[in-house]
Automatic annotation (TrEMBL):
Species for this entry: Cohnella xylanilytica
PANTHER family: GLUCONATE OPERON TRANSCRIPTIONAL REPRESSOR (PTHR43537:SF24), TRANSCRIPTIONAL REGULATOR, GNTR FAMILY (PTHR43537)
InterPro entries linked: GntR_C (IPR011711), TF_FadR/GntR_C (IPR008920), Tscrpt_reg_HTH_GntR (IPR000524), WH-like_DNA-bd_sf (IPR036388), WH_DNA-bd_sf (IPR036390)
Domain HTH gntR-type: start-end pairs: 14-81
MF annotations from Gene Ontology: DNA binding; DNA-binding transcription factor activity
Domain of life where this protein originates: Bacteria
Upper classification of the organism: Bacteria, Bacillati, Bacillota, Bacilli, Bacillales
Protein name: GntR family transcriptional regulator
UniProt keywords, alphabetically: DNA-binding, Transcription, Transcription regulation
Amino acid sequence: MKDTAQRPPFMDKQNISHDVVEYFKRMILNGELNPGDRIVETKFARELGISQTPIREAMHQLSGEGIVTIVPNKGPVIKELQKSDVFEIYSLRAAIEGLAIRIATQIASDEAVEELERFYSEMKVKLEDPSVDTLLQDSLYIHQSIIKLSKHERLINTYESISFQIALVNRILGRESTKQKEVDQHLELIEALKERNPDQAEKVMRKHIYRSYREFIELDEDKHWEDGETLWF
């Protein structure tokens, strides 16, 4: 009998295609696969001890999500993000998260807002903890919490559909961040929720995301991009 001890745990599950997708996403986020890398289906099928079918199905899904490109006579290749990709991801975030916080300021319970405020207070405490290197995951939790507070199912699903691309942009473009910066920049979101002013909250969120976008991209040399900014800022 073939030894399967070294196989990833999803090998024994029924929903292999889904888990293969997650496997490749982890490899990309971990830097084991990089933009421009070719995915050789036979190689990965052999290494994972599965047939090529779930690998092929996973590649089609990743292609649909804009993560890989199917190149004729070459096969799946990890897509290299262009400036236009980053613009689309962040402008879409501005629209989605702006609407989410607008709704959340109107329907979120006081208890839910207070709970998120407590989380933020715990986040601040980590500033003094030398064992904590980054607060990026804490920042992400705040954004995800605001999305959930909207209770808008289609909005939530849309956000989840681009969440990996957001993480991918962060890794590939090597965003530099500090713990102090994450704490300082996310206070405005907590305050916006507490003030319960939908118009102001949406404006704060859009500016927050726009600021992150500007950290990745320098647009001054390209008038087309400058014009594009006004569509969502």
